[in-house]
Design goal:
two-stranded antiparallel ribbon, 19% strand, OB fold (Dihydrolipoamide Acetyltransferase, E2P), 42% helix
Length: 324
Amino acid sequence: MFVRELAEGDQVDGVLVVREAELRSTRDGSQHLRLTLGDRTGSVAANVWDDVAAIAQVATVGAPVRVSGFLQVSRRYGTELTLRELYAAEPGTFDETAIVDGPPRSPAQMEADLRELLATIQDRHLRELLDAVFGEESATWACYRSAPAAKRFHQAYRHGLLEHSLSVAQAVSAISATFTGIDRDVAVAGALLHDIGKLNAYAFEGSAIEMTDAGKLQGEIALGYYHVRRLIEGIESFDPRKAEAVLHIILSHHGSLEHGSPIVPCTREATLVHFCDNLGGRLGSFDRLEKELLTGERWSRFDRAIGGGAYFAALQPREEREAA
């Protein structure tokens, strides 16, 4: 039984992956371990009150654990898995694809869509820049293809960066035909490269995503800017106006200083990428929240990324929508 299929009182006996683990102190000074456990359909909270130190060594972020217990729903604490037992899951005793989250489209399909989009770029210098990142023989491509898009809020799983950046670039490409004055090649190139700093900002192993020292000290925007700038400087006679336009997209894609961009979007192309990026991240949060719902639930918990609870009208089951 998957997490999304659980209902109050259901017994649980199987393998889940640890998505979050936090040691907390109680009022009497003792500690308990707050966990978020999940599979590919969703996640559920759990608390460990006994043998906390020993279990904390096992229940690390990204680790598969075998658990037994039952699902409990209370007005005060919401939906939680009440644990009877938790221990490390032995390799080969579970189906890894059942517990690891991932995109709805296959990596092969996303790569095919990316190659199709890249073929539409007309500018010679931008094509050379994009080939340095996405060329099949490029070392960067292997990392980009498997990297997550975030640590928590949207597409926080393997291939998430490809999924997010491709969807933003596809949206930018479509909208570029609607509004005048937009350099489509620059906008699409900027959309594909806007989050490239995450390759150095995140460390990704299994299903565990952590910030690197460089990510904490410099931030993904600065890392992305210098990454692309070095690539541009290695391309002979690269058009300086195109270089400035693409680098401005990377620097400004968060949209405002308070959200981490050192400059606000000052061009049509940067403005378009920012709004499509923001939309992609916001809708990605809805995907994440929907996976956390149990059968029959229509409202998510409060979520900081969207500033409220998300509502999912029961017009059509999610499985039927995905099949369609």
